[in-house]
From TrEMBL:
Signal sequence, renumbered to the chain: none
Cofactor(s) the record lists: Mg(2+)
Highest taxon, organism lineage: Bacteria
Protein name: VRR-NUC domain-containing protein
Residue ranges of domain VRR-NUC in the record: 5-47
Record organism: Hymenobacter aquaticus
Keyword Nuclease appears in the UniProt entry: yes
GO MF entries: hydrolase activity, acting on ester bonds; nuclease activity; nucleic acid binding
Membrane-crossing segments per the record: none
InterPro entries from the UniProt entry: tRNA_endonuc-like_dom_sf (IPR011856), VRR_NUC (IPR014883)
Length: 63
């Protein structure tokens, strides 16, 4: 999944994995390049995990 943070246009990339699914080398490379370019990159195994990581890394607090 891809998107952007509305307040500042920061690009967000999320690799969604289920069960024991692992990142493929090209997915890891994409996330590494995204981080190097100033974007937010996440690997999520559940929505709750993504939400917690996003709030922690972006300074966003869900009301």
């Amino acid at each position: 999944m891809i998107g952007f943070r509305k307040r500042d246009g920061v690009f967000i990339g999320i690799e969604v994995k289920a069960g024991r699914d692992q990142l493929r080398p090209e997915q890891k490379q994409f996330l590494d390049e995204l981080k190097a370019a100033g974007g937010l990159a996440f690997v999520a195994h559940s929505f709750a995990q993504f939400q917690q990581s996003f709030e922690h890394r972006s300074g966003f607090a869900h009301p």
